Amino acid sequence: MKKILASVIAMVMLLTSCSQNDTSFGGLKSTVSKEKEDRQASIWVEGDTYPLTVHDYLGNEITLKEDNTDMAAVLSGTPLNIWYDLGGKSICSSQISKNVKLVEGYEDEMLALPEIGPVYSIDMEAVMEHNPKLIIAQVGTQTTQASKLSQMGYDVIQTNIVTFNDVIDTYRAFGKILGKSELAEEKIKKLIEGKEEITNKLPDKETKIAILYVTSGSLAVKLDNSISGDAAKILNLKNIASNLPPDTIGSQTTPLDIEYLVEQDPDYLLVTTMISSNEEAKKVVEEHFNTNDAWKSVRAVQENKIVYLPQEYFLYNAGPYFNEGLEFIAKSIYPDIYGEIK
């Protein structure tokens, strides 16, 4: 028994030390060597030709027996963007927010897709009416409907694209599914080089930030596992909420505590919003600042060091345009290095 256990441990150590791009052994999630990291991919694909086995964000294994991508239904904005950036097509989608920056050259085509309801409340019957052979859904807002469609026999892949690494993983997985792995690697290479071009210029200093999350009825603070939190981490910005517990398990936010904010004394406030437009969001935030005297104690407010993050980059993950969001923050905080925002 000891010999068997030793052999198993040795094999696991060997497998986890191997540097792989997008495949894996024995059901272990793939690791990614392109960025010299040892991490688990959020979505990955076994095989190079059909049949393919997709391991999605929720750990589901979906076997795609044949290429049915011409009858794919991609049901939310970020995966839809990446799908089209690799030459894919969709037979329908949820309502596309005007705040999503769509892939250049495909905007009209994507906006003309038949709609199957809001992204947070898709109509399952409307999806089925299009007779999809492959469904790509979004974790969280579409998990319930997607799981039901899977139980009904549809091939359903559930994605969750939040961080830069999620973008890379999704490009690689979609590239395999679409038979466009070479193109996917070109896109990935460009994204990584773009990120490095930005991060290589970062100053050797600590800049503390807090990321406010504003809705029409509440204020909260974003954690590192959010789009803006991941961007801040890439830019070596110290998020004062990094070590705070989420408001619920897996949440990207924690409740706002102005006293803690004053105590931590962030250099900048980054503001991300879920309101109808960038302009309306700024009005709501300024109203909070003007009507609550506690904000007058926050140095970043006193010095007007407030960065309003554009919704096209931070309401949803910008996918192909992730680096534009990074550059926006870098220019807002270090204009002497990156130049002014135009």
What does this 3D model show about the protein?
- This protein is of the alpha/beta class and 342 residues long.
- 39% of the residues lie in helices and 15% in strands.
- It contains 14 helices and 12 strands.
- The chain has helices at residues 2-17, 77-85, 107-111, 124-129, 143-151, 164-178, 181-199, 227-234, 258-264, 278-291, 299-302, 311-314, 322-333, 335-338, and strands spanning 44-46, 52-55, 61-64, 72-74, 134-138, 156-159, 207-215, 219-222, 237-239, 253-255, 268-274, 306-308.
- The strands form 3 sheets. Strands 7, 8, 9, 10, 11 and 12 form a 6-stranded mixed sheet that branches. A 3-stranded antiparallel sheet has the order 1-2-3, with helices on one face.
- The longest helix has 19 residues, at 181-199.
- The protein starts with a helix and ends with a helix.
- 39% of the residues are buried.
- The model is unreliable at 1-37 (pLDDT under 50).
- By DSSP, the count of extended strands is 12
Order of helices and strands: HEEEEHHHEHEHHEEHEEHEHHEHHH
Kindly state the percentage of residues in helix. Answer: 25-40%
Give me the number of helical elements: 14
Global Rg: 21 Å
